[in-house]
């Protein structure tokens, strides 16, 4: 196969001239020859390389990983494929949850005011029972009000307690448990119903409320032990 100029090669492989120039600059796809005037010429080896690059880009591989694949014989394409499949599966799951929430909103949004806290019920992944939904809609619910600075401090202290696995006997851990216990006790029965719905959603989207899943489980354990009077829980599952 005779050498061809960059424009012809660009049309054959479906990459722009500027992209080919960039690939040459970073050493990813170097032309077989560059003449004294700086004109690039490509051969059949370049065509094969371009085909590999295009194929790997389509499955999500970065240029850095493609370069490793082409130049490093120890690069594991199998590991990349497994990691990329896992990432795509996670994205699909997240999109399915969002679709489920949007469908709930589409079906029931006419029953809610957009400023009504009860609308959070629509963001649950679960299929809502019409009778339960009707109960929530009819509840007289005020806007939730809380001290943002106090809540932020609580989140930091809770994270510290969980990371250090402090028991309920530790003053700081007990403080966190008592704080959350007061929050739950301050909710009226109507708000408690919404809390149940929110917690269902929290299980599939653990960062929705500014608290990690690990911290949430730890906190629930603290509150349960305070309610039962036990003070020897280690925080471990």
UniProtKB/TrEMBL annotation:
<keyword id="KW-0238">DNA-binding</keyword>
<dbReference type="InterPro" id="IPR000551">
    <property type="entry name" value="MerR-type_HTH_dom"/>
</dbReference>
<dbReference type="GO" id="GO:0003677">
    <property type="term" value="F:DNA binding"/>
</dbReference>
<keyword id="KW-0175">Coiled coil</keyword>
<protein>
    <submittedName>
        <fullName>MerR family transcriptional regulator</fullName>
    </submittedName>
</protein>
<keyword id="KW-0804">Transcription</keyword>
<dbReference type="GO" id="GO:0003700">
    <property type="term" value="F:DNA-binding transcription factor activity"/>
</dbReference>
<feature type="domain" description="HTH merR-type">
    <location>
        <begin position="3"/>
        <end position="72"/>
    </location>
</feature>
<feature type="coiled-coil region">
    <location>
        <begin position="78"/>
        <end position="105"/>
    </location>
</feature>
<dbReference type="Pfam" id="PF13411">
    <property type="entry name" value="MerR_1"/>
</dbReference>
<dbReference type="InterPro" id="IPR047057">
    <property type="entry name" value="MerR_fam"/>
</dbReference>
<dbReference type="InterPro" id="IPR009061">
    <property type="entry name" value="DNA-bd_dom_put_sf"/>
</dbReference>
<keyword id="KW-0678">Repressor</keyword>
<keyword id="KW-0805">Transcription regulation</keyword>
């Amino acid at each position: 196969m005779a050498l061809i100029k960059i424009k012809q090669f660009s049309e054959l492989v479906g990459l722009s001239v500027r992209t080919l120039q960039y690939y040459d600059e970073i050493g990813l796809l170097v032309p077989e020859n560059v003449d004294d005037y700086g004109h690039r010429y490509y051969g059949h080896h370049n065509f094969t390389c371009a085909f590999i690059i295009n194929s790997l880009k389509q499955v999500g591989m970065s240029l850095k990983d493609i370069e490793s694949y082409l130049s490093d014989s120890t690069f594991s394409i199998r590991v990349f494929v497994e990691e990329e499949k896992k990432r795509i599966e996670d994205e699909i799951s997240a999109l399915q949850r969002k679709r489920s929430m949007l469908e709930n909103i589409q079906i029931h949004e006419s029953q809610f005011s957009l400023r009504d806290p009860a609308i959070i019920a629509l963001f649950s992944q679960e299929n809502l029972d019409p009778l339960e939904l009707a109960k929530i809609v009819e509840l007289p619910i005020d806007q939730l009000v809380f001290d943002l600075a106090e809540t932020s401090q609580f989140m930091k202290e809770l994270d510290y307690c969980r990371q250090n696995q402090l028991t309920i006997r530790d003053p700081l851990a007990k403080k966190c448990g008592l704080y959350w216990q007061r929050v739950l006790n301050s909710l009226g029965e109507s708000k408690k119903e919404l809390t149940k719905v929110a917690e269902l959603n929290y299980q599939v989207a653990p960062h929705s409320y500014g608290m990690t899943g690990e911290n949430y489980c730890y906190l629930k354990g603290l509150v349960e032990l305070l309610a039962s009077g036990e003070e020897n829980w280690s925080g471990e599952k």
